[in-house]
Amino acid sequence: MRIQFLIFDHVEELDLVGPWELVGSLAQRGHCEPPVLVSLNTMTPVGEHKMRFSADAHYTERLQPDVVIIPGGRGAREAMKEQQVVSYVQWLGGTSKAILSVCTGSILLQKAGLLRGLKATTHWAFLDRLRDDPDVTVVEERFVRDGRIWTSAGVSAGIDMTFAYIADTFGAAVAAQVQLDVEYFPAGLVYGEPFRSESLPGYIRRLNPGA
């Protein structure tokens, strides 16, 4: 299995690096090929928080993945202004077995028309932007699957989505191996009271212990 990650200037680092770590572990165990980093603009993109990357290929090379993972960040919204990039994402939509988006990577999928008629989610601050599209059903969950399209909420949620994808595709036993490899056993701590804000998605508001 060939898994391709898209990257661009001003990518949100954890959107990319979290799922990449899981896929890297999956590859080390022989379940897929090593992941490939494909740039939508520069070959040396810089993240939102100044982490520097080096891409393996440029999107114009049209490498054919089985699975594509699209992170978010300000750069995703900038990249979709280029029609050639949108056309490339549309091409991926027609040729890939699965597409996973993290955070505002879903906005790029929306622009490419790949969320039409589907359920989807995104970072809580951009849910209304998804709702502006009458063809998309917004779901306020940490991640959502609709057919071969997976979308997640913001940043760290991409890790949970990728684990769910691994379990669904390779089985729970493989997901358990990867989970132990990366020691992903969240503490379950909630700092402050994020659930007090009605502007946040339902899955966060349900953290209220008194609800």
UniProtKB/TrEMBL annotation:
Pfam families: DJ-1_PfpI. It comes from the Bacteria. CDD domains: GATase1_PfpI_2 (cd03139). Residues 1-166 form the DJ-1/PfpI domain. PANTHER family: ARAC-FAMILY TRANSCRIPTIONAL REGULATOR, THIJ_PFPI FAMILY PROTEIN (AFU_ORTHOLOGUE AFUA_5G14240). This is DJ-1/PfpI family protein. It comes from Steroidobacter gossypii.
